[in-house]
Amino acid sequence: MQAKGNNSLKKHQLKGDLMMLFVTMLWGSSYLFMKMGINTIPEFNLVGLRFVLAFIVSAAVFYKRLKQIDTTIIKYGALLGFFLFGTLSTVTIGMNDTSVSNAGFIFSLTIVFVPLLMAIFFKKIPDAKTIFGISIALIGIGLLTLNNGLNLNKGDFLITLGAIFYALYIIVTDKVTKHVDSINLGIVQLGFAGLFGFTFSFIFENPVMPSTTEAWIAVLALGIFCSAIGFIGQTIAQQYTTPTRTGLIFSLEPVFAALFGFVFVGEVLSAKGYLGAALILIGIISTKIDFKKLGFGKQYSEMDI
């Protein structure tokens, strides 16, 4: 019975990991769309449009479930919506002062902040496989970043702050999705993130609607693909995997960002950049290896993270 339970757990973790991989690919494209959007739309305004659209699309798809929303879901949704707003507003503003590639690389520091914050708040130390994977992935991210001659300017600082917000979002999501309907929670959090965005926009900006084809493409892509599908997908996926594994898979985002940059705007990485991307992949794959079977010592339980 224990073996069946372990096999079922592995299948669920694989399901969650694959879903997070798809979500990460969508987010790899988001930096291009944010850069397009802020050319004509104020930053908080863009965040508000993005998440309100995502909320409308998600609510329309899952409208039959909305009657199950209760005060607990609203409370958790407001909390997660705040972290989403904090994440995307800092990143969107930071995009004014840094490049698409640089933003993707710096934001991947989330994989460092997740286990560090888990250790600080919950005294949960990552296992040997995870530590090894994080170390390799960090070296890869470093190579990718150094390829661009990283300097911590205002934009880079805001992207780093966004990574901290997102690490908190991952951890909090892991805690609250165990107690409520994940789809309804995903929908409500999008609504609150949009509400926070428009509230700040009315206070600090002059809100506008998209006025160009490029702006509409940016808003629609960010709202439907990168937000509605992306964040609800993550909320569901985190029922089956752990915060640290989520952070590690998320480290693939700069790889996808570089791929989209190459396909759509002709960006090409240096040899260091491609080496960094390869190391990130190795870091992710290493978390799947059973070191006990390979004779490298004790196998740690992933669910201990």
UniProtKB/TrEMBL annotation:
Q: Which lineage?
A: Bacteria, Bacillati, Bacillota, Bacilli, Bacillales
Any one cellular-component term (Gene Ontology): plasma membrane
Q: Where in the cell is it found?
A: Cell membrane
Q: Does the keyword Transmembrane helix apply?
A: yes
Domain EamA residues, every copy: 15-145, 154-285
Under Pfam families, the record lists: EamA
The record, for InterPro entries, names: Diverse_Substrate_Transporter (IPR051258), EamA_dom (IPR000620), EmrE-like (IPR037185)
**Record field: transmembrane:** 20-38, 44-64, 76-95, 101-122, 131-150, 156-172, 184-204, 216-236, 248-265, 271-291
- Membership in a protein family: Belongs to the EamA transporter family.
Q: What is this protein called?
A: Multidrug transporter
Q: How does it sit in the membrane?
A: Multi-pass membrane protein
**Keywords tagged on the record:** Cell membrane, Membrane, Transmembrane, Transmembrane helix
Q: From what superkingdom does this record's organism come?
A: Bacteria
